[in-house]
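Budget justification aside, the reviewers requested a transparent look at the raw inputs and outputs of the sequence design task funded under Objective 1. We therefore reproduce one unedited record. The lines immediately below are the structure tokens for a 287-residue chain.
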């Protein structure tokens, strides 16, 4: 008996089911989900699960894939087609498939809806209830491992979108002590009053950008002094220049932060010189 999944309007064989490779759930974790128990042929706490789904969608300003009555029909149909009496259904809604870009896609992007169902053996759970389980403890780290380049980019997506809605193009994270972390998809640099390039250490709390690492080589070649140290938002606001580095943005000057101009409000020469020298120094591999 083959399992059946619901994907965007169609009931398909589980083994053939798939979403687009540019689905935002796949690329940004820009998606929400629910898992709901099925016991003795009955869905448990459906209303509360669908209420929480509504809330999750609302919080992320994601479109609802369909009304609650229609959704309930589809959930029932998936459970029926999979002959589930004991088990669960899994439901995921993503912001849909769109060209990869952190900003929310255009409003007509259709959300992706996937529903799967699975039978489980109640006797396995019963055994667990009888024997109990062993656990470990660990430091809360959901999700401070931004040093790993994962697709868990939902906070970055929301930051970029917030920037866009504030009339800006990007966002910079500041920690609770007022220290600059990094951009939503880039590393941050400042040029201090004495011309020194400053960027925060990449040991923790930020992604160690490849462009950042190569830029350290560029600075050495151009004999520009560099300090890898923390700097505050205030120091950044008073800097001679502020710029971003990333593989897609090279060395991008920042001319305004929270509505205040950086220096005279125009791109500076240090960022331009670095950008000019960058390609020369970076590794280049023939296609
Ligand atoms: N982003 N920090 C974050 C959070 C990033 O997403 C990126 C890159 C960087 C800079 O890393 P690199 O120099 O290796 O590109 C720093 C890519 C460009 C993106 O998500 O589109």
């Amino acid at each position: 008996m083959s399992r059946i999944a619901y994907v965007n309007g169609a009931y398909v064989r589980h083994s053939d089911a798939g979403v687009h490779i540019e689905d935002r759930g796949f690329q940004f974790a820009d998606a929400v989900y629910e898992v709901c128990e099925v016991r003795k042929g009955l869905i448990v706490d459906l209303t509360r699960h669908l209420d929480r789904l509504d809330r999750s969608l609302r919080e992320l300003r994601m479109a609802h894939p369909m009304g609650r009555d229609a959704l309930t029909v589809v959930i029932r149909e998936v459970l029926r087609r999979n002959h589930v009496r004991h088990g669960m259904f899994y439901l995921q809604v993503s912001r849909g498939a769109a060209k990869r870009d952190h900003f929310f896609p255009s409003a007509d992007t259709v959300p992706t809806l996937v529903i799967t169902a699975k039978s489980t053996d109640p006797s396995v759970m019963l055994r667990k209830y009888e024997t109990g389980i062993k656990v470990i403890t660990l430091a809360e780290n959901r999700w401070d491992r931004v040093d790993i380049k994962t697709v868990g980019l939902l906070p970055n997506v929301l930051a970029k979108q917030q920037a866009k809605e504030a009339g800006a193009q990007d966002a910079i994270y500041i920690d609770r002590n007022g220290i600059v972390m990094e951009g939503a998809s880039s590393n941050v640099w400042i040029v201090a009053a004495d011309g020194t390039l400053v960027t925060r250490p990449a040991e923790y709390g930020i992604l160690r950008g490849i462009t950042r690492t190569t830029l350290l080589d560029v600075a050495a070649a151009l004999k520009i002094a560099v300090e890898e140290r923390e700097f505050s938002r205030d120091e950044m606001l008073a800097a001679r220049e502020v710029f971003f580095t990333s593989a897609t943005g090279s060395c991008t000057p920042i001319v305004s932060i929270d509505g205040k101009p950086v220096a005279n409000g125009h791109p500076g020469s240090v960022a331009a010189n670095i950008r000019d020298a960058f390609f020369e120094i970076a590794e280049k591999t023939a296609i």
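The domain at 4-120 is CATH 3.30.470.10 (D-amino Acid Aminotransferase; Chain A, domain 1). The chain has two domains: 4-120, 125-286. Computational costs for records of this kind are itemized in the attached budget.
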